[in-house]
Amino acid sequence: MWDKPQLLLFVADLLYALAAILLLYAVLFLVVHLPIFPLREVKVTGKLGHVTREQVQYVVKKELKGNFFTMDLNQARVAFEKLPWVRSVNVHRRWPDRLEVVLEEHEALARWGTMALVNTKGELFRAASNADLPVFVGPDGSQAEITERYRVFGQYLAPLHLKPVRVVLSARRAWEVQLNNGLTLALGREQMEMRLAKFVGVYERTVARIQTPVHVVDLRYPNGFAVRVPEFKSREKGGPGEVKKAA
């Protein structure tokens, strides 16, 4: 080997290159970790109505570690996503010393039973709200479907100045809607929109004219619907009677 100058030259060049790479890495490591690149500002933006300044300050103080270069952006994103009303987070470095955080909040549409809230995209999230929201009830994973139906039912009921305040999807896929006037509509498992459209078309000249308060309207009849009122008692069963109205 020692009598091969070309090989020796190649090995020497290789060692010099390796040393240069290690030196460059060491310099970069020191530069990046020196306190001359502190993160001086965390700018949080977005249309915020529920996320408080105190919550943001807590995350910045307790969760964000490192300087401009060493800050883990994914870890920062996850830290902000832990806040109850935060739906999504985008985090970016802005030279020379700023971190920019863009927050998107959930927009609450309804309550999911007594457990959680549903946003306008049909997604579940857990947060506290004192708002007067409709209630959705259904099997696990059905919140997006109920959100879609809620909007459709609301469109059909709008001409009557009525709106759903409770939408229920049973385990057997049957739909039930309670309205803001206390009336509950049993829509069944099929042709819900058609049944609701027929009901809306005859409401003013049928149910609206009944003097006794109506609690339930069963729309599952092929050629009409049944109205249930608490005053009519069945002598045999002791339960609420039914008065059929042609649709």
Describe the structure in your own words.
The chain is an alpha/beta fold. It has helices spanning 5-33, 53-62, 73-81, 143-157, 192-202, and strands spanning 41-45, 86-94, 98-105, 108-112, 116-119, 124-125, 135-137, 164-169, 175-179, 184-188, 216-218, 224-233, 240-246. It has three domains: 1-33; 41-105, membrane protein fhac (Ubiquitin-like (UB roll)), CATH 3.10.20.310; 108-246, Cell division protein FtsQ/DivIB (Rossmann fold). The chain contains five helices and 13 strands. It has a ten-stranded mixed β-sheet with strand order 6-5-4-7-8-9-10-11-12-13, covered by helices on one side. A three-stranded mixed β-sheet has the order 1-3-2, covered by helices on one side. Helix 4 runs parallel beside helix 5.
